[in-house]
Amino acid sequence: MTTGKSDLVSIRVPYKNLHDDSSAPELELVDVHHRGNHRNSPPPNHSPSPPNSNNAPLLHLVLSCTVAAGVQFGWALQLSLLTPYIQTLGIGHAFSSFIWLCGPITGLVVQPCVGIWSDKCTSRFGRRRPFILAGSLMICLAVILIGFSADIGYVLGDTHEHCRTFKGTRTRAALVFILGFWMLDLANNTVQGPARALLADLSGPDQRNVANAVFCSWMAVGNILGYSSGASGKWNKWFPFLTTRACCEACGNLKAAFLVAVVFLTLCTLVTLYFADEVPLTTASQHHHLSDSSPLLDEQQQNGVEFSKLKPSSVMDESNSTRTEDHIEKDAELKHGNFKAREDHAENVMDGPGAVLVNLLTSLRHLPPAMHSVLVVMALTWLSWFPFFLFDTDWMGREVYHGDPKGGTSEVDLYDQGVREGAFGLLLNSVVLGISSFFIEPMCKWMGAKLVWALSNFIVFVCMASTAIISLISIRDYSGGIEHVIGANEAIKIASLVVFVLLGFPLAITYSVPFAVTAELTADSGGGQGLAIGVLNLAIVIPQMIISLGSGPWDALFGGGNIPAFVLASLCALAGGVIATLKLPDLSSSSFQSTGFHIG
């Protein structure tokens, strides 16, 4: 009996069957027997690179995530200036919230897909850096489109009337703005995930908290610089050439601020790309592992053992003895190649946006029971936050300073002044957020994460109710006389800024505690933490979709302005606090560890 090329068997065992090694998500056993003497042949090296077991130099960690500051700089400008700016192009207040719909869509679908794709990227420049570079270039292009949207619309055929006197809709400029805005959201989500993953790749096992602190510090720097830039009303004076017939003072300020954002992001990205010493993922070491969402797999695949086999040619009939060993090897390689192609195709389908969304939705039934209460409280929490995020500076311009982006010259000036004062309030908010972050972990160990989260919702309830009260008092005291010239009085301005400051503390809690609670609840779920965080993201993006679609029409239903949305936000915060107190599980206070901020 003549022996040809023997069996090649690849056995993949789901990680839930590996009780002795919970850290290994999948075990792959490969057995290859060659014909003849193969003792001198080196064994094939299919093992992946060992995980980073050494702590990275702190300076390298700090410099490797500077891109977070650049991205957050643009995000701060987006939050503070773009809702007011779209109204200057003729889009009504009732519809201005619609432009924010792209954020939750891209956050729901794009960021998980980019994370999966970057995990498998085999570029010689590393897994994360190509996505960071591509996303940063998209951000630069997007903010240029936004900043120059009025000028581009002017060239494409919008009215040639001076922007100071024209109060109608500039359709082409609005379309260019929306294109840039949606591209900016897409690009932000393209950078954020790989940037966080890059820091996790580079940091050692004992550097998780340090890495989170560094990343959040850079985000705080970006917030402070971005809001400071938005609060400045002198950009058009420093760069007068940016003001044109289609782009007046407020537009010139926004244009200059975004150009500064491009320069800052470019520098931050270059520093990250240079100092992030990534090890490329080679094709040989790229194994096909089961993802964190293993409960979503087909029952047959999940409970069984997956085999990929090539039929043996170990027994050869004398009539087939004319076939050479080369023919046998080529035949085996062809079959193996066909199998790998089918496997890769199936895996690519599972990595697509549709499959990611379906996996997240169907995974709800696999979560620990306590996670359902977490999802409800999380959704109510973000229903209370998003009206403020969307309309905070617009609220300052309208209800506090009594301006109007479509009014006369004095009303436009008052509105712009209020928007800049709102950006300054967001700057103060960011400072308080950064300081508060140092006290969250001690508070959770003292009071428990459940009560800390509930407390944050009650504070938001008081603050959002205060915005409605301040607005009603300001409107009641407003008259067409002297206050029409000076805008808000000092007491109203101070009270408004106090609200911005107070909201910094519960915002720090919202950015950290829910994720730490989720991590603790799913710690023993056999690799389901990534899945749970993905589902928790649903409780953020779905409320944002609701607010984006409904807040503008809801405000219009009560005569316009921002008071109806803020009243609804205060009620959601109150409900979130009550449910958190009654339904959230009591977690171990001593084991609490902050997982860092999740911003943007």
From TrEMBL:
Compartments, as annotated in UniProt: Cell membrane
UniProt region (Disordered), positions on chain: 308-334
Keyword check for Transmembrane: yes
GO molecular function: sucrose:proton symporter activity
Protein family per UniProt: Belongs to the glycoside-pentoside-hexuronide (GPH) cation symporter transporter (TC 2.A.2.4) family.
Bilayer topology term: Multi-pass membrane protein
Gene Ontology cellular-component annotations: plasma membrane
Biased composition regions of type Basic and acidic residues, renumbered to the chain: 323-334
Superkingdom, natural source: Eukaryota
Species: Glycine soja
Name of the protein in its database record: Sucrose transport protein SUC3
Sorted UniProt keywords: Cell membrane, Membrane, Sugar transport, Symport, Transmembrane, Transmembrane helix, Transport
Entry's transmembrane regions: 58-77, 97-118, 130-150, 170-188, 209-228, 256-276, 370-391, 422-440, 452-474, 494-519, 531-551, 563-582
Chief location category: membrane
Functional pathway: Glycan biosynthesis; sucrose metabolism
Matches recorded under Pfam families: MFS_2
Entry keyword Cell membrane: yes
